[in-house]
Specification:
mainly alpha, 2 helices
Amino acid sequence: MTHDGAAPERAFPSRAGGWESAVYYLCYAPLLLWGPLLAAVTYAYYRRRRAGIVAGVSAPDRVSP
């Protein structure tokens, strides 16, 4: 805190402006995709595993290309 009670910009990078703010958003933006991407790969894994169970093929019997 400064002597007048205001917080310095380095404590809040999104309010700093300029290149500091751009770097902050560039680094933070991919974190917003974590949840949706995790859900997508979980669903794809479920479908892949479910297809083998329905077909009656167990994991050791599958041959990878």
